[in-house]
Design brief:
six-stranded antiparallel sheet, 39% helix, 16% strand, 23 helices
């Protein structure tokens, strides 16, 4: 009954937290309400997407599991935004959600140092503001000095389908009331409410796909995990198509005429909804001028017996759901297997957390996933991985791993949450990352694998491959940069079109490489030495060459910012005594209690002038301490 680390909740955050802790040599217990639902995908049968794909690659580069499971369970792979720049492209995979769950559970059950228990945690055991264990519904008490809560939507969850309300954390499953009360009463954490939802699932045999637009996967699909053989994956991966359908005016009329029965509008739901993944009734209400909305018909398993109607999330009554689905071309005879619903649940204000994801008020207590106000499997898994790593490091009396905003989307995600908080379900976007040109999907391993290797989560063999890849890309990019182009017709035309000042600012080589028309074939004509590299490395060399100017600029900006990263704000620092700070700035600094000047800079409303004043006072305080 005694463990180093206890993880509460078997979703995507819980899996990554438990696996990383166990693989770092810590005796770990994962407690889940239902053992067979470890790794269940509660909503859409997909992993990745814009910015979310970046998170999955970063999880993999650090030694996490999500990418590997997705590669095995995936049934369609596509790179989104292929026509745009490499920084904003994102890989997305449809998954066999049954297979995904089975693989995830089996990994948990076969990992050394990791036990799985099917119980419900009712309360936390706290002594002197320090976590010491948990109590379950079976009256078991488990002790641990580190506890990670990854409860998803299960804290006081309420399901809404029209006027019907059911208590549950997922349809057909119980909720957790005791743990929510314990977090509030025993730990003193600020608890608020959020709402999310899902769509109906349709019997695939009752859909007429012939009148819909087919959407296939990529001809040469890319795996998520850097540990998956790209060549073998492309040769053996079987893919299923998705389909695109559309709502119409009849659909909209059915929905709008039933607004009075929509829990979202009647006041039945108080929690804030996700802005970027709205329900269909919300879309019809806000975008009344739109003639139609896209619906993506996605298979839930390789057997394709049920389809997920992406874009039709709803909490309208069952009879209304039937009417609106039957109004869509191709779904006139569709049979609903599972109705869509909304779920309202408790979450903890993420400003209660340190960047390590440990709570500020209770030592040894970590929170990860939707409990911190996020939405999405990928955001949850990223937090779970970092919580597991940092809980394990704390047991070794080591500093936590805090990824910077210029190092990883994971760094952006956690920094946004703990410094700014959230009032709606937080979702990752590429636009949230200031340095997204440095944070491309394909560079995740060269950016982060050194951390995974130092933690024992990435093998020596894999890390050597990553170092070789990095060396080849840098060497190839340098060759490209140093090339002296031989004058020719195309080259002379380019020279004539260039601005004189532009030629002074950067090399002619960089100007030419930055052109859209400059591709791998032209690169090889100019630098034939690159022929020996594989296609993947050539693509990365081309990207590095095209964006070298911008990458240099971002790198210079990061170096300037690093001086602030190194300056810690002393614990217990009295912001009230800093002359020149406004009352608003002082209140925000006291509320967030940032650990560094960089963290303080990321707080909304904190000006550069305030940071400079704070910097001066910190130096004064340090001198006084030394004296």
């Amino acid at each position: 009954m005694n463990y180093d680390v206890i993880v509460v909740g078997g979703g995507h955050a819980g899996i990554e937290a438990a696996l990383s802790s166990a693989r770092m040599g810590k005796e770990t217990l994962l407690i889940s309400m239902l053992a067979e639902n470890v790794g269940a995908t509660s909503c859409n049968p997909a992993i990745g997407g814009l910015a979310k794909g970046h998170l999955v690659r970063e999880i993999d580069a650090l030694g996490g599991e999500m990418g590997l499971i997705t590669d095995e369970a995936g049934i369609q792979f596509r790179v989104l935004n292929q026509t745009k720049g490499p920084a904003v492209r994102g890989t997305r995979a449809q998954i066999d959600m049954d297979r995904y769950r089975i693989i995830a559970r089996n990994v948990v059950l076969t990992t050394p140092n990791l036990d799985l228990a099917q119980e419900t945690v009712e309360s936390l055991i706290v002594q002197d503001k320090t976590i010491v264990g948990v109590k379950t519904d079976l009256l078991n008490e488990y002790s641990a000095s580190k506890v990670i809560i990854t409860s998803g939507t299960f804290l006081r969850g309420i399901i809404h389908i029209g006027e019907v309300q059911q208590v549950g954390g997922r349809f057909g499953e119980q909720t957790s009331i005791g743990l929510s009360n314990s977090l509030k009463d025993d730990c003193g954490l600020i608890i608020e409410r959020l709402k999310t939802g899902t769509c109906a699932r349709i019997d695939s045999s009752t859909i007429d796909f012939s009148v819909m637009e087919e959407q296939g996967g990529d001809e040469f699909p890319n795996p998520f995990s850097f540990r998956t053989s790209r060549e073998e994956f492309r040769r053996t991966k079987k893919q299923l198509p998705c389909f695109i359908a559309y709502t119409n005016q009849n659909t909209h009329d059915i929905i709008s005429s039933n607004f009075y029965r929509a829990p979202l509008f009647t006041g039945q739901i108080a929690g804030k909804s996700p802005r970027y993944c709205p329900s269909i009734e919300d879309k019809i209400s806000k975008f009344a001028d739109k003639d139609r909305h896209h619906l993506f018909i996605e298979p839930q398993t390789m057997d394709n017996t049920e389809c997920y109607i992406n874009g039709l999330s709803t909490s309208l009554p069952p009879e209304v759901q039937r009417q609106m689905i039957h109004s869509v071309e191709g779904m006139e005879n569709a049979k609903i297997v599972r109705y869509g619903y909304a779920i309202e649940y408790d979450f903890v204000d993420p400003r209660e957390l340190k960047h390590s994801l440990e709570t500020k008020k209770i030592k040894g207590l970590y929170l990860a996933g939707q409990i911190n106000g996020t939405t999405g499997y990928e955001e949850a898994a990223a937090q779970g991985l970092m919580a597991g790593i940092n809980a394990s490091l704390a047991l070794e009396d080591k500093e936590p791993l805090i990824l910077r905003r210029d190092e990883a989307y994971i760094g952006v995600l956690i920094d946004d949450l703990v410094t700014k908080g959230t009032k709606e379900p937080y979702r990752m976007f590429t636009s949230r990352a200031e340095y997204r040109l440095l944070l491309r999907e394909e560079s995740a391993d060269t950016r982060l694998s050194r951390y995974g290797h130092s933690l024992g989560l990435i093998s020596d063999e894999l890390y050597e491959k990553v170092k070789l890849k990095d060396k080849q890309i840098k060497a190839g990019a340098k060759l490209l940069e140093d090339t002296k182009f031989t004058p020719n017709k195309e080259f002379n035309a380019l020279l004539e079109s260039m601005d004189e000042q532009a030629l002074k600012d950067v090399s002619t080589a960089q100007q030419l490489v930055a052109r859209k028309s400059f591709d791998v074939a032209k690169m090889l004509q100019i630098v034939p030495e690159l022929e020996e590299y594989d296609e993947y490395i050539k693509d990365e060399i081309l990207v590095e060459g095209k964006y070298a100017r911008y990458i240099d600029k971002q790198s210079q900006e990061i170096e300037r910012m690093k001086k602030y990263l190194r300056i810690a704000i002393p614990e217990g620092f009295d912001f009230e005594k800093v002359s020149g700070l406004s009352r608003e700035v002082v209140e925000k600094l006291e509320s967030f209690n940032p650990p560094t000047l960089q963290s303080a800079m990321n707080i909304s409303g904190i000006t550069p002038a305030a940071i400079e004043i704070l910097h001066i006072y910190i130096k004064i305080a340090k001198k006084k301490e030394q004296q």
